[in-house]
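so my prof wants the structure for this chain in the tokens format not the other one, which i didnt know existed until like an hour ago. anyway here's the sequence
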Amino acid sequence: MKIWRNVFLSLILITALHLQTMAQKKLKRFGEIKAFPNVLEYPENMKGKWNDFFKNNNPVNLELACGKGEYTIGLAKIYPGNNYLGVDIKGNRLWVGAKFAIDNHLSNVAFLRTQIDKINTYFSADEVDEIWITFPDPQLRLSKAKKRLTHPAFLRLYHQILKPGGKIHLKTDSPDLYNFTKLVIKMYDLQIISDIDHINLLEDISDELKIKTHYERLDIAQSNCIFYICFILPKALPDNDEALTRIIKSDAP
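here's what i got, hopefully its the right format
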């Protein structure tokens, strides 16, 4: 019993030291990103100024809920003539992509730390060319349906900043989020540009779809399937929110 007690205490100590190290690492990163020239934390008065920030007139594209910024970085490498801005609230994660961009001299990459539901406060109308949403939290609970990044509440925010005809790309391993998005597309008269329900089974895919995020490698949804859908918003989104809510509730287990 004494041996097992010592083992148990040792595990507790190791866990505590690990957590302490992780906390110190996060604090160190939080301090460093404040000095990174390619990270903006809750900036003010940025509407209409993103081309000035990037020091060019190239298209500005967003990756929402970018995490460590793998897709932001990957797209920036594929399309050096575009600007890419990763958006996330987690500064510890943004540090990874921002540090990589600095170390590799990627001048067309930057990161914005803020909440996505405030995205329209940072951009003027028609300032964003495309939006990528890669492996976001699918928000599976019925009570959190409005937090899904393809919910009409968010689409209306995107509508305020996207150029007419600007594409929205969703890549996810969640069949629930994929099917929810297709329902929204149908109910709100969105135009589908591309719809692939088994990217991982295809041999010939575009370079932009070959990019893998940390969460894609984890396969959290355990669906063994990667979904991709690209669509365009209409000139005006209809108000079908109540009908959408009824359908979601009726489909809930």
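also thought this was worth mentioning. Residues 1-35 form one domain.
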